[in-house]
Structures are given as C-alpha cells and as structure tokens.
Amino acid sequence: MFNTLPPKIVFQEVPDHVSLAFLITGCPLRCKGCHSTDSWNKLKGKPLTKSSYISYLNRYHSFINCVVFFGGEWASPALIEKLLIAKDFKLKTCLYSGLEQVPVQILTLLDFVKVGPWQRKRGGLTDKNTNQRFYDLNSGKCLNFKFQSPNQQ
Ligand code: SF4
C-alpha cells in the first residue's frame, strides 16, 4: 500500500500522451536538492486503494491514454497491482523512478520509464547534460530529445 497526492492530468511528462499522474509519497532515495521533499513523508496524501484507483480511472479514462506514477517502486506489490489495472483499462503506463534500474517485474508492465536520480549539476530531462533517461520500452528508444528544445540538440 502507498499514499498518493491528488492525481492530475498532465501533458508533458509522457511525450505525445495525456496522462493521469499520481505522485506517490514516501520516496526513500533522498536525492540531494530534491524538488519535492514534501513528498518524502509516506504519511502524506491518501491511501491509493484498489477501489479509489479504479474510481479515478473510471472518472478520467475518456480524457487520458496513459497513467504515470512518480515513484512507488519501493512498494512493488501495490504498484504492480495498479499497473495491471491500467492495462485492463487499455491505458499506457509510465514510471518516473530515481533508480538507475527498475525491478524487472515492474519494468515488464511499463510502456515508458524515466530512470536516474536527480543531480542538480546535470539537471532534468530538459537538460542536454542530464544523467536521467526517458525510454519508450516498446521501441527501446531513448526519448530525451522530446523534452529538450531544438537549440540544445
Ligand atoms: S527520486 Fe525524485 S522524489 Fe525521490 S528524492 Fe530523488 S528527486 Fe526527490
């Protein structure tokens, strides 16, 4: 089980997709310079139960074609349950992880993944020098270029 902040519809986190985004609280990675330290507390937010999650998907699925989780890989049974349900709704799935490698049992249920911890000197996906990588797991392609302005290429 894990807690989530209220989900939001987002347009840029998964290129060419409209996603329902869940920010899962309780990230244990403690990256220096983390931009969302307020989400470290696992008691923040509300439990994302199976029924509350299905209720969100029923409410939003006609507006979205993807579900993105910011974290949650540290509670893999809960995350796997949610990814399988997203598949039942015929939605694409994405995980933003601070890990370099995501456990394979999660990876096999994802269409997209962002890997790599936050490093202030390297920047995020919009920065050409970032250590982070965003992959389309169906094609195996790195899609970092989709986050960067053309004059950075
Ligand atoms: S993975 Fe993300 S949320 Fe977790 S500590 Fe690092 S920057 Fe913060």
Automatic annotation (TrEMBL):
Required cofactor(s): [4Fe-4S] cluster
Superkingdom of source: Bacteria
Alphabetized InterPro entries for the sequence: Aldolase_TIM (IPR013785), Anaer_RNR_activator (IPR014191), rSAM (IPR007197)
Keywords: Iron, Iron-sulfur, Metal-binding, S-adenosyl-L-methionine
GO MF: catalytic activity; iron-sulfur cluster binding; metal ion binding
Pfam families in UniProt: Fer4_12
Name of protein: Uncharacterized protein
Protein's organism: Thalassotalea marina
